[in-house]
Amino acid sequence: MNYYYGIKNLAFSGGGVLGIAYLGVLDYLYSNGLLQSVKRVAGTSAGAITACIVSFALPFKEMKNIADSLDYRKFPGTNTHKNLKKIPSVLKNELERIIGDIDGIYRLTKDFGWYSSEYFYDWIKEQIEIQFDPNKKQPPYTFRDFKNKSIHKDERKFLDLYITGTDISTNSSRIFSYETTPDMEVAEAVRISMSIPLFFESIRINKTIDNEEQTHIFSDGGVMTMYPINMFDSRIFNDIIIDGVNMQTLGIRFKSKYVYEEITNILDYIENLVKSLMKVQQDLYKNNLVDVLRSIQIDTKEVSSTDFDISLNDEKYKFLYQQGYNATKEYFKNKT
Questions:
Q1: Cα(17)–Cα(48) distance, rounded to whole angstroms?
Q2: pLDDT tens-digit series, residues 44-88
Q3: Pairing relationship of beta strands 9-12 and 160-167 according to DSSP bridges
Q4: List of the chain residues with pLDDT < 70
Q5: pLDDT of residue 99
Q6: 288 vs 238, 258, 282, 291, CA distance in Å?
Q7: Which of 153, 203, 243, 293 has a C-alpha 20 to 30 A away from that of 121?
Q8: Environment class of residue 38 by beta-carbon count within 10 Å: exposed (0-12), middle (13-18) or buried (19+)?
């Protein structure tokens, strides 16, 4: 990458809890003044969470405090489904004794995902709300609001934000941004992007098309676009496009070690199915030399993307953080 022109765009891959490694990446980038020229940020799944936080254009310490406030152990919500709250507890307990987690089973059949994402949705909404002046506009906050610095706290200008999602109803990848979905709630877009298929409940959005209301089912952006490295490969974002590639984009992705895992239940099956989807896209990436050249690749060893049993500053957290930092340092060793 020619850093004479500076880094204008960041693209963060999906990867579940592996996203903790992005803090190490950002630590290095901020500490070395490598983000001063960044204007846009894109992300998928875990990368969408990071992209949203980075878009606030905060100092690294404040950004890290936001990221560290997310409790991963609460992430896969097991709360009672709203449609089951009227079932007497005695009956529910008996049903669970016979067939297992009735909330998970019901959520899977009705909302197409075993776990609730309600905790995450509430968390990301709260983090976004803190960045705005409530006297100028009340939540929810949309992509249009992200663009309007007059309603931001201290009138701070945000970076342009691009989030990927998958519209299951039309079998298509979607980009959520100011240009494409200005009136969409940003928190909802991020929630869609991180909704690992079958693992987390899918998100329903009603649309009116040709005077007919349609319900669209959305899921994780990583189903079709795990790594949005090509998001800014257009002359709209850079006049200097070489062979269809914008070399002012820096991407960050994961390299994971795939190992044998015994599958004994539906959750094991779902987790490994998702990993298979990720591996297909990882193999495509390996065959694209240009994308390899403009990407920081973080080796996360055997840490699973769905290992939500992780907490602030435990061994896995420290490992991922350090791997992100080291990978970034190595990438820039001969470039700056």
A1: 12
A2: 999 999 999 999 999 999 999 999 999 999 988 766 656 656 665
A3: unpaired
A4: 1-5, 78-100, 208-211, 282-287, 336
A5: 56
A6: 21, 21, 10, 6
A7: 153
A8: buried
CA–CA distance, 24 with 133 (Å, rounded to integer): 30
Nearest to 113 by CA among 11, 22, 3, 192: 192
Report CA-CA distances (Å) from 309 to 65, 131, 178, 184, 250: 20, 29, 35, 32, 30
Q: For residue 301, what are the contacts with CB-CB under 8 A and spacing of at least 6?
A: 256, 257, 319, 323
**Domains of the chain, first to last:** 9-73+117-332 (3.40.1090.10), 82-114 (no CATH)
pTM of the model: 0.90
Contacts of 177-182 spanning 24+ positions with Cβ under 8 A: 177/143, 178/143, 178/144, 178/146, 178/147, 181/143, 182/142, 182/143, 182/144, 182/147
CB 66 within 8 A of CB 39: no
pLDDT in tens, 155-188: 999 999 999 999 999 999 999 999 999 999 999 9
